[in-house]
Amino acid sequence: MTRTITHFVDGAARPGNGGRTAPVMNPSTGREQARVELASAAEVDEVIANAEQAQVGWAKTNPQKRIRIIMKWISLINDNIDELARTLSLEHGKTFEDAKGDIARGTDVLEFSVGAPHFLKGEFSNSVGTGIDVYSMRQPLGVVAGITPFNFPAMIPLWKAGPALAAGNAFVLKPSERDPSVPVRLAELFIEAGGPAGVFNVVHGDKESVDAILDSEVIQAVGFVGSTPIAKYIYERCAATGKRAQCFGGAKNHMIILPDADLDSAVDALVGAAYGSAGERCMAISVAVPVGKETADALRAKLEERIPDLKVGHSLDPEASYGPVVAKPALDRISQLIDEGEAAGAELVVDGRGRGANDAEFDGESLADGYFIQPTLFDNVTTDMSIYTEEIFGPVLCIVRANDFEEAFRLPDEHVYGNGVAIFTRNGRAAREFADRIRVGMIGVNVPIPVPIAYHTFGGWKASGFGDLNQHGPDSFRFYTRTKTVTQRWPDGVATGADFSMPIMD
Ligand code: NAD
Questions:
Q1: pLDDT per residue as tens digits for the range 369-398
Q2: How far is CA 322 from CA 308, 318, 459, in A?
Q3: With a 6 A CB cut-off, is 393 part of the ligand 1 pocket?
Q4: What three-state secondary structure class fits 78?
Q5: Is the pTM above the cut of 0.90?
Q6: Where is the segment annotated Disordered (predicted)?
């Protein structure tokens, strides 16, 4: 019988009301492995109402007690990391080791959230007027929601849940319907760690459930990560309904390689960053920009030499460099974009279409129907081609040749997306100028995927991010709390009479 993945509400599995379900595939085999329930608007409203009640007690719990639960939660996640990574790998298609990284980069943010008592401290000014003090406090928002993408089913939910919960909010997570099991398991472990029922809920669904979250009058803030059109839609709808929103979208990350770069290190970095996780990372490098013909020719030659060494296989194959892409429509879309690149005149140096996995089977299972695509390399790509303008989100690397630094600089600077960018060089002055001027949110200097560590913030610019506060780091506590400022005087009993003009501090 097919397994059903249910919602997780009020501290326990909550079967849906018998409405719609969606298949959860194993992308390595192309076979359905479970069905996930898709919540109706009424079911979402019920979850939110329940969370609203649970939040009151959670907000009153002192912050140190809250973070002790989070510390225990971290420890339980670590105890269960192999099981979590296996489930994640089987639903997403990323390799087991990569899946462990997905979880570990999430728990990094839980560890950061353990500092909540510090971030929740307010400010105090003594004697701002005669006998008057002013102080501020940071209070939780109430019930907040996270709407998250398929490509990091542990990391991104934890990036949202950690600071939100540590700050005293109740959290409703609507994870991707493509790989929903790990988010549920994380919520179960929160309860096992001593978290109160109703504070961390997982509700599965698609547009209907998302719209119910956006229309709810109880939800105070929405943290979204996904594609740009949906990020924009959610940002606009949150503005219309008066909610706080941080909405992160798609990307087209460039890597500039200057002639003085250590080319071998740059190629190592590029191969991992372009093809790792089948290119399904918002910080993947999808455009390489070598400066000068000599650098470009040498880079291309080294890539051509390295690409055949990559192994595309079942996500649990320990020898696989990367696994399948997440779904058949994703595979078809990537192949279609490669067709378009070829038709537009880009040079298809290595064609990954239609070649499947390296092996016919893994562990007795056929890989013939898996969603595999071999690494693909284009050279002489120009900025008008769809393979350059669009996010491909697959293992496709485009080389765009530049004659000099300024020409290379303009490419990521003028691209519609502005998530991450990398520069490889030995010239500190060039790197410094690049980082200073470029209109992109996260910069790597000789680092290909510059995902900032948990105590700095993560967020892209331009079409890669809507809203002014980033994920994790101190911004996350600003996002999940609001400031209240108290001006107080304790009168000495001597009446001063009514004052009809604006008080002035003198
Ligand atoms: P997606 O936009 O299809 O889905 C994201 C979430 O939105 C899911 O929970 C999904 O159920 C929901 N959703 C989908 N369509 C919707 C609709 N019409 N109305 C309301 N909700 C809807 O994204 P995805 O395919 O799951 O993830 C890949 C995308 O996420 C890529 O574009 C990638 O670059 C981006 N991403 C960005 C970051 C970042 O930090 N900028 C990080 C990871 C992924």
A1: 999 999 999 999 999 999 999 999 999 999
A2: 13, 10, 26
A3: yes
A4: helix
A5: yes
A6: 1-30
